[in-house]
Amino acid sequence: MLFYVLVMNVFNSKLNCDGQSLERRTSLDVDRVLHRELPAVDFAGHLEAMAVFLAQTWKDEHPDASVDSDADLHDCIAAVTTELAIAAQAVGGPAGLAILTGGGSAAARAVCKKVLSGDRG
Fold it and tell me: CA angle 65-103-38, nearest 5°?
């Protein structure tokens, strides 16, 4: 019975773990939490890292592809952009939005040029 009383006192308490009153919250505190600005995230580097794997895979499947061929470059960019768009739909959120609003194709263009020129890094 003593355990029940102790547990009920904890759950019915108006204090948090630190012993501070839960009733001291003001609308100013709530506004400060709800309206804080989040830092911007630059996804460009992360998108290029994902695109490298896709471009290298495309290049492995097309060993005769060359950076001098516009058709090969466009095919690589299209394949990588398509795969990134599929990933964007699966992930959603800010990362998906960054990919679908141009980040995926920008990463694909940069990476396909590097991979087709022989720079695998």
Answer: 150
